[in-house]
UniProtKB/TrEMBL annotation:
<dbReference type="InterPro" id="IPR000847">
    <property type="entry name" value="LysR_HTH_N"/>
</dbReference>
<dbReference type="InterPro" id="IPR036390">
    <property type="entry name" value="WH_DNA-bd_sf"/>
</dbReference>
<dbReference type="Pfam" id="PF03466">
    <property type="entry name" value="LysR_substrate"/>
</dbReference>
<dbReference type="InterPro" id="IPR058163">
    <property type="entry name" value="LysR-type_TF_proteobact-type"/>
</dbReference>
<dbReference type="InterPro" id="IPR036388">
    <property type="entry name" value="WH-like_DNA-bd_sf"/>
</dbReference>
<protein>
    <submittedName>
        <fullName>LysR family transcriptional regulator</fullName>
    </submittedName>
</protein>
<keyword id="KW-0804">Transcription</keyword>
<comment type="similarity">
    <text>Belongs to the LysR transcriptional regulatory family.</text>
</comment>
<keyword id="KW-0805">Transcription regulation</keyword>
<dbReference type="InterPro" id="IPR005119">
    <property type="entry name" value="LysR_subst-bd"/>
</dbReference>
<feature type="domain" description="HTH lysR-type">
    <location>
        <begin position="1"/>
        <end position="58"/>
    </location>
</feature>
<dbReference type="Pfam" id="PF00126">
    <property type="entry name" value="HTH_1"/>
</dbReference>
<keyword id="KW-0238">DNA-binding</keyword>
Length: 307
């Protein structure tokens, strides 16, 4: 089979649209359609169902897809540098939830790229799950490990979250000593119907009113808190970036979550992506540990100064 035709097949299978596939391939949609029709004629099989909603794989298309993806993985592996000590190069797209993308990845990716000047990293920061089967990204960081699909998940590290508020806000209100005290305060959190992972529903287990100020973005929530809007659940690793916020109800309320690195199963043999993943995992682990420890150190210093 012609690999160029297989490349077109993969693009349409992942995009489910001639237009989106054409954009990825830098081809006219009509040309993409003709290439698919030619491939189907050559194989004497119908690979896609056509409808107003787009292109969906038929049973024959679904059977062909993993073989073509495996062939693509082998081709990518063959293009990798042979010597393990050679620097990383080329483009890698990394998907991540926006909290991780804003407060962890800039430091980690900057360090990796400093060590590999020919490497180009694209960070896609979106508050949703990424579809690696459609190649929205080469790999993605998630809070929950995927339970379906041809995906491989590697736990990166645990991280912790606590209630926090601006120091100015806390100074204007009575002390918060127990969870029940939160009923007298405004809460900041996620928009309920836009919580894309149940692990992010931090307030679900608490008998508290819903948050009055909400956003699907972690940095927006942090900035609301910095403006004295109320209290909210914040990643400990974000607090060094917002020194005007202070944790409360420690240790009465503490959450532990984990980041996972998710990759397509066919990419596990790709030496370049494997080396990048190793550097990414070790970098995130070190950064989370460093930032969380700095929060504890600041609190210890404040406690010693104000016994």
């Amino acid at each position: 089979m012609d690999w160029d035709d297989m490349r077109v097949f993969l693009a349409v299978a992942r995009a489910e649209s001639l237009g989106r596939a054409g954009q990825a391939l830098k081809m006219d949609p009509a040309t993409v359609g003709r290439r698919i029709a030619r491939l189907e004629a050559r194989l004497a099989r119908r690979l896609f169902h056509r409808s107003h909603q787009g292109y969906a794989l038929t049973e024959d298309g679904l059977r062909l897809l993993p073989h073509v993806e495996a062939a693509q993985a082998h081709l990518r592996a063959a293009e990798e540098p042979g010597a393990p000590g050679e620097g990383l190069s080329g483009q890698i797209r990394l998907g991540a939830p926006d909290g991780c993308a804003n407060y962890l990845l800039p430091q980690v990716i900057a360090q990796i790229c400093a060590q590999h000047p020919a490497l180009e990293v694209q960070i896609v920061a979106l508050p949703r799950l990424f579809n690696l089967s459609r190649r929205e990204a080469d790999m993605a960081i998630s809070v929950s490990a995927p339970q379906a699909g041809r995906l491989h998940a590697q736990k990166i590290t645990d991280y912790h979250l606590h209630f926090a508020a601006a120091t100015a806000y806390l100074n204007r209100h009575p002390p918060i000593r127990q969870l029940a005290d939160l009923r007298r305060h405004r809460l900041v959190g996620y928009i309920p119907d836009m919580i894309f992972d149940r692990e992010l529903d931090y307030l679900a287990s608490l008998s508290l009113p819903g948050a009055q100020m909400t956003s699907n973005s972690v940095p927006v929530q942090v900035n609301l808190l910095r403006q004295g809007a109320g209290l909210g659940v914040v990643h400990d690793f974000a607090l060094p970036h917002a020194p005007d916020l202070r944790r409360v109800l420690v240790p009465a309320f503490s959450l532990t979550r984990a980041f996972h690195l998710v990759r397509h199963a066919d990419d596990l043999r790709n030496a370049r992506l494997r080396r990048f993943a190793d550097a990414l995992v070790s970098g995130i682990r070190a950064q989370v540990a460093h930032l969380e420890e700095s929060v504890v150190q600041v609190e210890r210093q404040a406690s010693s100064e104000n016994p």
